[in-house]
Amino acid sequence: MSIRTAEDRVLSTLNPDGTRRWMRPTLAAGHYWSRRRLVGWLLIVLFVTLPRMTVGGKQAVLFDLARRELTLFGATLYATDTLLLLLFLIGVFLGVFLLTALYGRVWCGWACPQTVYLEFVFRPLERLIEGKVKQQQALDRQTVPWRRLLKWTVFAAVSVVLANVFLAYFVPVDTVLQWVTRPPTEHPHGFAVVAVVAALMMLDFGWFREQMCVVACPYARLQSVLIDKQSLIIAYDAGRGEPRGKLHKVSDLSIGAAAAKGDCVDCDACVRTCPTGLDIRDGFQLECIACAQCADACNAVMAKVHKPAGLIGYTSQAKLERKGAGRLAVSKLRARTILYPVAICLVAGLLALAIARRGTAEVTLVRAIGAPYAVQATGDVHNMARLRIDNHSDADRQYHIALVDGGGIKLVLPRNPLPVAHGATATENLFLVTPAGAVRGKREVQVQVRDGATYDELHKFTLLGPN
To answer: How far is the C-alpha of 52 from the C-alpha of 402, rounded, in Å?
Structure first.
């Protein structure tokens, strides 16, 4: 049976017959690479140390899924803080929109943990153990290449370390430390979590790799609506480079030959060094992560053929249309780059105000579902309410509930004081028993809730009765 092939390549990481095209990019150690490596290692240090920092006695960053808490630099948001969480997420998305509008996909190429760990940890180890591209391809033809086995052993060890770094953002650091230092029999569930995360890390950085950026990550798909013609991108200056042609003789460097051809010598160095397999000369593509490896490779070739650098580099579509790529060519003042910061400041202000005004507890007192009231045989009128307390303090609390100036009305509830753990929520039904004739139609009362430490507030409730 014949295999149908696509006329054009569908994805840069797929062959025309649908099989995977394995990426083994050649390292172009140029100007941009040196800066990316410095930024990458600084970020690795930050990624490792950030969850181990403390602010106000709390872990600096912790997404505690078990307790449904989000701690950011001293402030803790709970699952019940719907408005605060919504404002936080809106602020994050607006920040992403602004960053992309100004600098395109520079986050992916310079700061994303996927790129940072792959390009500055796993690929250097791979080149150290297996050698350069041709040596790696030679290993593909061997039955049991010991170098490849050694590489996967090293990858497994590094993945275990990174798994513990990653989990420290979702599990308290002390718990992760116990998982590491104590025998697995004492924490089988924790050991299983670390093992699974480490296996996923090794699968991602050892095998899936650029597919995460090209196929799985939704950010590339959002680029088409987040950038405009003034956004920073990596691009090839076709006006200067075309018509491209290879240099066959030294005489091709003469003035006459140079006038007949563009500056691109069609060496494909930019293609061989691209981590996602793109040919940047085909125009702007969503798979481009703006890592500038193609720019470094091209600049090295331009230096060899005695032509100016910058044939490939950071620029904008608007600058290309005006002829000449140049280096950084971005108009920062435009509608979206003004509206996004304004919106970010507004959301940040609302979030800060909401956190500052948030008390140590959130109390909700509402009428229970069902009949509005019930009249007993004795003539007493029963109103049932539902009390919910969210404990936002840093310790477990005992909440005392009392009726203020009840005038003969009794407050009945199963537990008083009501215990609520730190960061937890407790719900209880309470009854307000009114003597016969004390409520005709409606009557407003006040219920006091206090924890004896920081919370003491009155909450209104309307009693209903006959007539």
So the answer is: 43
Evaluate the CA torsion angle 223, 226, 229, 235 in order and state its sign.
negative
By the 10 Å C-beta count (0-12 exposed, 13-18 middle, 19+ buried), 17 is classed as exposed
Contacts 24+ apart (CB under 8 A), 74-80: 75/355, 76/392, 76/423, 78/390, 78/392, 78/423, 80/362, 80/390, 80/425
Q: What are 189-214's pLDDT values in tens digits?
A: 989 999 999 999 999 999 999 999 98
Amino acid letter, residue 257:
A
Cβ(451)–Cβ(390) below 8 Å? no
CA triplet 141, 145, 147: central angle to 5 degrees?
A: 125
Concatenate the DSSP letters of all residues of 426-439 into one string.
Answer: EEEEEEEEE-TTS-
List beta partners, residue 418: 399
Amino acid identity at 295: A
- Please give the biggest Cα pair distance in the chain: 114
pTM, rounded to two decimals: 0.81
Domain with CATH 2.60.40.10 in the chain: 361-464
CB-CB neighbours of 18 under 10 Å = 12
Domain 361-464 = CATH 3.40.1390.10:
no
The pLDDT of residue 166 is 95
Residue 209 class from Cβ within 10 Å (0-12 exposed, 13-18 middle, 19+ buried)?
A: buried
- The DSSP line for 324-372 is ---S------SHHHHHHHHHHHHHHHHHHHHHHH--SEEEEEEEPSS-S
For the chain, how many residues are written? 467
Q: Which of 2, 223, 232 is nearest to 102 (CA)?
A: 232
Task: Please state, in angstroms and rounded to a whole number, the distance separating the CA atoms of residues 323 and 240.
Answer: 8
Sign of CA dihedral 12, 17, 20, 22: negative
Pure H helices in 261-334:
269-272, 293-304, 317-321
Q: Identify the pLDDT of residue 329.
A: 46
In whole angstroms, give the CA distance from residue 176 to residue 69: 17
What letter represents residue 339's amino acid?
A: L
Give the span between the Cα atoms of 421 and 392, in whole angstroms: 9
Give the mean model confidence (pLDDT) for residues 355-362: 85
Neighbours of 415 (CB within 10 A): 12
Residue 108 pLDDT > 80: yes
The H-or-E segment that residue 234 falls in is strand 233-236
Spatial neighbors of 309 by CB under 8 A, at least 6 apart, are: 298, 299, 302, 303
Task: Choose among 45, 217, 25: nearest CA to 124.
Answer: 25
Three-state SS for 233?
Answer: strand
